[in-house]
């Protein structure tokens, strides 16, 4: 609702890549986030793309 027609949204990670955390530091930080709140943590890039497409957005 807030993005103007033809507007651009930029998302910045980090994200899991196909469900995989790519470094030990990412794994440790993700675990700490999840301990604090199970809804927090790195999101999977595939899930993010699926939700963007469902919202009518086109990845570049």
Structure report:
The chain has 60 residues and is mostly helical. The protein has a domain at 24-54. Helix content is 38%, strand content 0%. The protein is built from two helices and no strands. The longest helix has 13 residues, at 24-36. The chain starts with 23 loop residues before the first helix and ends in a 6-residue tail after the last helix.
What is this structure, in a nutshell?
This protein has 60 residues and is mainly alpha-helical. 38% of the residues lie in helices and 0% in strands. The chain contains two helices and no strands.
How are the SSEs placed, and which strands pair?
Layout: H1 24-36, H2 45-54
Q: How helical, in percent, are the residues?
A: 25-40%
Taking pLDDT < 50 over at least 5 consecutive residues as the criterion, the unreliable ranges are none
One letter per element, helices H and strands E, the order comes to HH
- Outline: elongated
What value does the average pLDDT take? 93
Coarse structural class: mainly alpha
How many beta strands in the DSSP annotation?
A: 0
Beta-strand portion reads under 5%
Q: What are its keywords?
A:
60 residues; mainly alpha
């Amino acid at each position: 609702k807030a993005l103007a027609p033809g507007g651009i949204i930029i998302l910045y990670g980090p994200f899991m890549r196909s469900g995989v955390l790519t470094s030990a530091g990412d794994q440790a930080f993700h675990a700490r986030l999840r301990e604090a709140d199970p809804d927090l943590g790195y999101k999977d890039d595939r899930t993010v793309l699926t939700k963007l497409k469902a919202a009518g957005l086109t990845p570049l």
